[in-house]
Amino acid sequence: MSSSQEIDEALKKFEKVDISGVETTKDEPTTTVKKDNKLIWPRPILERDEKKKKVVEDIKAAKSIIVLTGAGLSTAAGIPDFRTPGTGLYDNLQKYKLNHPTDIFTLDYFLEKPHAFFELTKDFISKDYKPTSSHYFIKLLEDKSVLLRNYTQNIDGLEFKAGISRDKLVQCHGSYETATCVSCRKVYPNIDIVKKHLKPDNIKIPMCVSCKKGIVKPDVVFFNEDLPERYTNLSNVDFEKCDVLIVIGTSLKVSPVNVLPDKVPIGTTRVLINFEQAPLGSIQRNRTYPYDYYLNGDINETVFELCKELGWEEELEKLVSEGELTDVQKLEVSENKTCTACILNKKSC
């Protein structure tokens, strides 16, 4: 068997890394790679539980964790995915005869047929969706003082409901919290003017009270619009400091957020928690980065597994439970009149 055939056979069992810029042994420059005197290739392909243990070890040692989240967190919270055929939301949008569901998020289409956008997004403010355990996991990282930032591609605001601090959050695609007139650019600091026009059975287009002619558009980033300055300014700095990057509920297909994982320093652990893998050239697919871990499966179950291994299980459960309480019930807990479990289970200690 030739050496090239041996290497081909080895690659069936091991993942190869890019050897440029790192030390290689003189006798086997193409098959053995070291960095900081540690052998980083060949590396055995790990089973899921083994990868999970590696991730837990790295989270325990981390000081600056960035979490990048996507639509998987929203759908796990019950928010419909407008891009999936067969869902009620997708079917409702068919009356607008879209070439593609994402046409709704183009400014030209919005100005021509704004009803479609408000039909799609009215549930964000008319229904009381609750954060998932994945949202509370991010909050737990903040409580542990290891969360550098949460970059979210979602516009539903569930991060705030989970208690994640505003300074720890970057809303890559804008938010549904504020709005702006598309004509005179008057800024509306809250979404009330939009809310009162969106009834379950009757959608009216919110018009600007100042110029009287412009549509009031929630500050959601449409295609071909610039991302918020906060995203640009912080992403250029944050990712250089990151020692663990956790990507949850996104397959990294939307630009420019999909290139963020490439901004972390060499040696940074990158974890993808999702039902499907990322596209070729991204996390766990280019086979050239030895610090990548893909944990497939249900994102909330996977996050719970990690918390269990980390010893954070009870803390996560407490955050989730308290997140389901009303403000009055939270006051009862804070005043030690009863406990969270008793309120949720309608019992007494």
Automatic annotation (TrEMBL):
Family annotation (PROSITE patterns): SIRTUIN
Domain Deacetylase sirtuin-type: 45-313
One cellular-component annotation, GO: nucleus
Requisite cofactors: Zn(2+)
Source organism superkingdom: Eukaryota
Gene3D superfamilies xref list: SIR2/SIRT2 'Small Domain (3.30.1600.10), TPP-binding domain (3.40.50.1220)
Binding site for Zn(2+): C181, C184, C208, C211
Name of this chain's protein: NAD-dependent protein deacetylase Sirtuin
Organism lineage: Eukaryota, Discoba, Heterolobosea, Tetramitia, Eutetramitia
